[in-house]
Specification:
Dehydroquinate synthase-like, alpha domain, mainly alpha, 9 helices
């Protein structure tokens, strides 16, 4: 489900931003549904867990709030998997995103976030507010819900990755 969802997303996200087309919207809704089904089976992903707090605090749509940290957590997680020689096949992940390699996949996620930010009513945040928000978001995450995450993420790491993502969007 998650691989199919990533494939649908990668094939259709750009046209959704540029074309007012009900068919494209339906494809993205299917993508979101497949991601939700995968989350229902595997508990949740770190960006999804963090997004609840960020959505509420910043009054941003849930999907965009997921993308506030998705690229950084993706990069950290896959780097850890590769470094540790874990059995997870990272090639399946970036190929499902229609990317040639890990770096292209990270770039794609950052570009999607950047393009989506143009359509958001983003509040102004300074460095201190981003620091505080990152710490608060890391405290809000239910660690039990992250038990299926491929690598361990402690509160400090979650805060650092959240901080990095928020800086990219708000500064």
């Amino acid at each position: 489900m998650s691989v199919e969802g990533m494939r649908l997303f990668s094939e259709n996200y750009n046209s959704l931003l540029t074309v007012d087309n009900v068919n494209q919207l339906n494809l993205m809704l299917t993508c979101a549904n497949k991601a939700g089904q995968a989350i229902n089976i595997t508990k949740t992903t770190a960006p999804h867990a963090i997004s609840y707090y960020l959505s509420k605090k910043l009054n941003l749509p849930h999907g965009f709030s997921v993308f506030l940290t998705l690229p950084e957590i993706f990069q950290f997680t896959l780097s850890e998997i590769i470094t540790n020689g874990d059995k997870l096949d990272v090639e399946i992940i970036y190929k499902s995103m229609m990317c040639k390699n890990f770096d292209d996949a990270f770039f794609l996620l950052r570009e999607v976030r950047k393009q989506a930010a143009v359509y958001m009513d983003i509040p102004s945040l300074n460095s201190q507010e981003i620091e505080e928000l990152s710490l608060e978001a890391s405290e809000s995450v239910n660690q039990e819900r992250l038990s299926n995450h491929p690598v361990e993420l402690d509160k400090k790491t979650i805060s650092e990755l959240t901080h990095a993502g928020l800086k990219e969007v708000f500064l």
